[in-house]
Design brief:
Number of strands: 4
Shape: elongated
Order of helices and strands: HEEEE
Length: about 60
């Protein structure tokens, strides 16, 4: 995903929770759409993994 695409669709992981949060699971990073990259660099939201932790079933 490049910056133009990011600016058109600047979704953030607003529901991301810290590691160790009970009832949390991996989910696809919205900012990079799971690619782990933005403009050939690491996505700053998921640190290049393409995944973030989010609450499951209303937890968090």
């Amino acid at each position: 995903m490049d910056r133009d695409q990011l600016n058109q669709n600047p979704k953030r992981n607003t529901d991301e929770v810290p590691e160790g949060t009970p009832d949390a699971a991996e989910n696809i990073c919205r900012r990079c759409a799971g690619s782990g990259k933005i403009d050939d660099g690491e996505c700053p939201e998921c640190d290049g993994t393409g995944k973030v932790l989010t609450p499951v079933g209303g937890a968090g």
